Description:
The complex is a heterodimer.
Chain A: E1 4-7, E2 10-13, E3 19-25, E4 31-37, E5 43-50, E6 53-57, E7 64-70, E8 73-78, E9 87-94, E10 104-105, E11 109-113
Parallel strand pairs in A: 2-11
Antiparallel strand pairs in A: 1-3, 3-8, 4-5, 4-9, 5-6, 7-8, 9-10, 9-11
Chain B: E1 4-6, E2 11-14, E3 19-25, E4 32-38, E5 44-50, E6 55-57, E7 60-65, E8 70-75, E9 84-91, E10 102-103, E11 107-112
Amino acid sequence: xxxxxxxPKYLVTQMGNxxxxxxxxxxxxxxxxxxxxxxxxxxxxxxxxNNKELIINETxxxxxxxxxxxxxxxxxxxxxxxLGDSAVYFCASSRRASDYNEQFFGPGTRLxxx
Amino acid sequence: RKEVEQDPGPFNVPEGATVAxxxxxxxxxSQSFFWYRQDCRKEPKLLMSVYSSGNEDGRFTAQxxxxxxxxxxxxxxxxxxxxxxxxxxxxxxxxxxxxxxxFGKGTKLxxxx
Lengths: 114, 113
């Protein structure tokens, strides 16, 4: 049983294209997150959603837009892709956004922009 | 000072060795602390939470020193399967972005036969 799933696992695309990454969790969690892990392996939060409302919006370019059709899904849409967007993007979820709730991560989407 | 700082390693140790990782954090009002483990080309997974009184889970012991803003992870009797990157993770204080975990860059451990 997959707890947090992401598609696609690999994404290779040209600069300037628009792409989406999908994320689904079947844990019944209230909060979902998107992280970016760059080539230096530094993992940094991009967004989180709690009950379909954005509660964290880090200073990421507005080319990145999270979309949550329901509590179980948080998709990431990226417009006008740039070389620097190449990274691994992880989706995660937690029961709620509070101190000690464990975050469960998806397997990651490896994005390569050519 | 970086928000969460770790020695990147790598730590190369033989099986059976004891190894310790250290981590420092900059915000003294941070509320909760964790160690996550990330295998090569895999997602991070929670290893253990870190409590003020210190906590142990089998071969793993985590310690927190709030006065020094310092977190540690001790692994005893290292196994080959312990080879991974260990991420020190801090949750900011209330009033900020709850759930907005701040990850260190990780310490790479390689256990050799």
